């Protein structure tokens, strides 16, 4: 098993390098950049997008400066543009910039944000609590609820309980997370009905002055609605996955043999079926965790006014803050690959009969 883990760890290097190469190459063809962003703000346009179509004077002639390829550089000295390029490191060829960036990342130096005067590492750590809250609690709740419910549905397959819970699960899966979040706000955050939960934020303004028990209560009070909104789709998927996995195992011969020996149904389910049926559920853990942790966080964070990694990534992409874009891509890509290895280790923990080294051979 040690040799397998070592190979998987070594495989992270080319995989992560491929991810960075593809995304770095794509960025070279995306209109705009940090220099364009600065020029657009200096022109009072607000952002870089407003200048993509170009401009013209009263005679209909294009008014782009002949000394610069940047939209919005009209009337600005060429030396000023070149100075901006040097500040952002864009005066070097793309290959040299990429190699320098990867060398810095190997030393865990992710640079500093172009527009926030703070290191990328500090920026990620600052936003991490929100995403950890959404990802961790949503995943935990999804597993705690979905696994027992899925087992129950498998045991009661075809019954009235299985029918109405399947209907509820399908409806829950069909509801977009952002729409469910808005519904929760309207119902429970003072929208039109009850004001039970706070409208925004992760903690109250007076959180620092609260006692420890009060801080814990305030924390859970604030995260209830965003966590529910983040959990709904993962909950539906995981429940059906658990049910189908248990149904496949229940029909196998070893289950009938265990029942013929006089074992109780609970012993059969949790002593024999559970280990085999949970393999596919564990296999889906990285996708569930990473999906909740990153994919759905932007909209949820925006609706509940939470300043997390989702909003950070979106704002960095819009502002063309390349150190933040590539730094977070590298960090999150590395996390995703490591979680995949952890998933394989959980396979072995649940069923020691699995040997990945023999399978590779």
From TrEMBL:
The keyword Transmembrane helix applies. PROSITE patterns: ABC_TM1. The keyword Isomerase does not apply. It is a multi-pass membrane protein. InterPro entries: MetI-like, MetI-like_sf. It is found in: Cell inner membrane; Cell membrane. It holds the Pfam family BPD_transp_1. Gene3D superfamilies: MetI-like. Keywords: Cell inner membrane, Cell membrane, Membrane, Transmembrane, Transmembrane helix, Transport. The chain crosses the membrane at residues 9-30, 130-151, 163-189, 219-242, 277-304, 324-350. GO terms for cellular component: plasma membrane. It comes from the Bacteria. GO terms for biological process: microcin transport; transmembrane transport. Residues 128-347 form the ABC transmembrane type-1 domain. NCBIfam families: PRK15133.1. Belongs to the binding-protein-dependent transport system permease family. This is Microcin C transport system permease protein.
